[in-house]
Amino acid sequence: MISRRNFCKKAMLFIGGVAVPVAGLEIFNPQRLLAEKQDPAKVRWVFLVDTRKCVGCGFCVRACKLENEIPYDANVSRTWVERYVVTRDGKVHTDSPKAARDGFTTKAIDQAGKGMLEIRDEDITKAFFVPKLCNQCENPPCVQVCPVGATYQTPDGVVLVDRTWCIGCGYCVMGCPYGVRFFHPVYKAAEKCNFCYHRISKGMKSACVEACPFGARTIGNIKDPEDPVTRIIMTERVAVLKEEYGTKPQVFYLGMSKEVK
Amino acid sequence: MVHGEVWTAKELFVYPNEYIYWTIQIVMYPFMTGLVAGAFVLSSLYHVFGVKQLKEIARFSLVFSFALLPVAMMPLLLHLQFPFRGIEVMMTPHFTSAIAAFGIVFTTYGMIVAAELWFVYRKYFVETALELRQLTGRSVTQQFRYVLYSVLTLGAWDISEQALEKDERAVKLLAGTGIPVACFLHGYAGFIFGSVKANALWMTPLMPVIFICSAVVSGIALCIVTYIATMEIRKALHAWKQKSSPALPLLDEMKSAELQVVTMTARYLVMFLILAITLELLDLIFRGYTAVKSWDILRSVIYGKDFVNIFVIQYGMGNLIPFFLLLLPRLTIRRAVAGTLLVLLGVFMMRWNVVIGGQAFSSSFSGFMHYHLPIWPDNLETFKEGLFGALLVAITPFVLFWGLNKVIPVFPVKDTH
Ligand code: SF4
Ligand code: SF4
After folding, report:
1. What residue stretches are annotated with the 4Fe-4S ferredoxin-type domain (chain A) (predicted)?
2. Sign of the Cα pseudo-torsion (B197, B198, B200, B201, in order)
């Protein structure tokens, strides 16, 4: 027969023995250690586009192509500028010839297969330019659908593509509602704007922001209340594109018009 | 040239990076997967539900579904920019992606079909191996066949009554579990499209169900045509052999069995066809009735640009005509062939209209894109994503089936000895 004293002793020993490794699990949780060391939530990159300032010169598109080695003459681009012309009859005409790499050199609207459309000045009620780029969505469908995890999101909110891992299925291209993705003509892997991650992570501005002579493009950290970009987003009336898809885009627009798609 | 630029024609405003990225291979992919699933469901009708009349075509469609299996992966591999990295889907699956989950379901399903086939043919393997063992002084081919069949038995040489009964129970069980997996497999193919919220045409929870129904339709249709074709070829071959050696028996029983099997199978085909059409029309009507933001551009694609493809070829030629061809009384072999071929065309066009039609309009909702199928390939890309790449995919299962038939005879071999 086991004595009560003996039982208590053994039970305490057993509990103590179990408690030590369990406590170990708690103490050495690597994720928490990492979280305490470098708070990933300190930076969240966002972009602010002031469409009222954009003149459609295309400097940003050119700078981006050179910076990110997208073949200059290839008909794809990480960023582009759209021109909207609204006429008196309520029609909206849009184009972006060669992604506006050379700016808009003619008044005629490029309708691709349908040719060029001349619009008389007196028929125009309003016209403006809208730069587009990857929205680095908070809830990115492109990351969700990638079958091998080649598209992923960094803790500071930028969505990146691993060229050495992408199998080139095109699922992410289909999944992005903004049409920003394409296949790199040289590397063949999925490609898109990454806010010039190699620059911003070193404290520089992205190439397009640097190149814009009118300050229509700015990049900032929404987690920093002192950031001028954050201050505008927090205090002024900004809009995002295609909110209905639930992607939570992080490129904000000032002076957006309802015609923009 | 950028990927996609060769075969895409743009009209009005399309985002600069938009091209038709999913081309004919992605049309072939759900089409071939559908055939696999459909053929398997047909074979299970006999094994699980004991539809006796389907006995002969059941065995046939099981082997055929196995021959189709590797081909379901082929279009995907041909489509990838990095085909050699394709295996990474299995190595580093990313579980929020429908394509990654598909790989897992696909493998499970493949193993089920392989196991079922083994149980069905185990007796044959053992008998053949024993027969060959008795031969003294085997030739090289005979020795090869002996080794092959011995290996195929996997060491299970017992063909007593009880053992065979156990086999049969295993087949039934596998066929039973196979049905949901086959449906799941194809439901997943549908899910790959249905879950793309960026695409107004694909985005519907009905997509997986529609895909399953039309998969069963196409699988049954293909089995019927191939069944008839192989029977005819065998008859022709037999008649030809008979000419040289008149001692061979006549093939009367072969002929009568055929029509009965075809009529019976065609009835199941029509049943699933009705289900498929109902769902597709429901989807169409629902979209028109609710008319959300995207309906404007969808309507212009469905009733304008793709009218011929959708209403004339898919619904008219692919559904309505075969419906009557197969349902009118006194079905003949010739009418059955015509009907099932049209059904196959209809299902193919449905896949085409989903995949290509879904990319026919830009995400900007104000422009259109057209796909010009590359016919003559002038480089690897136009081969892979063009007519010849698709033909390669379409022919492969028949070659595999022919090869498989050498090892596991689909038809009773008594009369050819
Ligand atoms: S905009 Fe498109 S590519 Fe960029 S994060 Fe969002 S879904 Fe992905
Ligand atoms: S194309 Fe590449 S990045 Fe895009 S989903 Fe496929 S594997 Fe992922």
Report:
1. 45-75, 125-156, 157-186
2. negative
Give the separation between CA B194 and CA B113, rounded to whole angstroms.
27
Q: Would you identify the CATH topology of the domain B11-407?
A: Formate dehydrogenase/DMSO reductase fold (1.20.1630)
B88–A148 CB contact, under 8 Å = yes
| Cβ of residue A148 lying under 6 Å from some atom of ligand 2 | yes
Token pair 């209209």 is at which residue? B353
Partner residue opposite B16 with nearest CB, options A99, A111, A141: A99
Tell me, in angstroms, the distance from the centre of ligand 1 to residue A134's CA.
5
CA distance readout (Å), B121 to A59, B55, B177, B309: 70, 14, 19, 43
**Cα–Cα distances in angstroms (integers) from residue B85 to residues B81, B92, B132, in the given order:** 9, 11, 43
Question: For residue B211, what pLDDT is reported?
Answer: 93
- pTM (global) more than 0.90: no
Q: Tokens 């759209």 appear where?
A: A82
Closest CA to B402 of B154, B107, B66: B66
Q: Which of A45, A79, A159, A172 to mutate to test the pocket of ligand 1 (most atoms within 8 A of CB)?
A: A159
- Quick one: A41 exposed, middle or buried, by C-beta within 10 A (0-12, 13-18, 19+)? exposed
CB within 8 Å of chain B, chain A residues 166-195: 166-171, 173-183, 185, 188-189
The answer to whether the CB of A132 falls within 8 A of the CB of A180 is: yes
Pairwise CB contact (< 8 Å): B21 & A183: yes
Q: What is the pLDDT of residue B174?
A: 93
Decide if B99 and A169 are in contact by the 8 Å CB cutoff: yes
Q: What is residue A182's three-state secondary structure?
A: strand
Q: Encode pLDDT of B300-352 as tens digits.
A: 999 999 999 999 999 999 999 999 999 888 888 899 999 999 999 999 999 99
Is B58:B45 a contact under the CB 8 Å cutoff? yes
Segment holding B343, helix H or strand E: helix B333-355
Contact (Cβ atoms closer than 8 angstroms) between residue A125 and residue A165? no
Contact call for residues A122 and B73 (beta carbons, < 8 A): no
Cβ(A174) to ligand 2 under 6 A? no
Q: What is the tens place of the pLDDT at every residue in B73-106?
A: 899 999 999 999 988 888 888 889 988 888 888 8
Q: Alpha-carbon Rg of chain B, whole angstroms?
A: 23
Question: From atom 6 of ligand 1, which residue's Cα is the shortest distance away?
Answer: A137
- A230-248 pLDDT per residue, tens: 999 999 999 999 999 999 9
Residue among A141, A148, A181 minimizing CB distance to B89? A148
Q: Are B167 and B154 in contact (CB under 8 A)?
A: no
- The β-bridge relationship of strands A45-50 and A251-254 is parallel
Every domain of chain B and the residues it spans: 11-407
Q: What is the DSSP letter of B312?
A: I
**Atom 5 of ligand 1: nearest residue by CA position:** A136
Residue A173, SS3 per DSSP: helix
Instruction: Return left, alpha or beta for A219; rule: phi > 0 is left, psi -120 to 50 is alpha, else beta.
Output: beta
CA-to-CA distance for A179 and A158, rounded, in angstroms?
Answer: 17
Residues of chain B neighbouring A169 (CB-CB closer than 8 A): 76, 79-81, 99
Query: If we measure between CA atoms, which residue out of B393, B313, B387 comes closest to residue B29?
Result: B393
Is any Cβ of chain B less than 8 angstroms from the Cβ of A260?
no
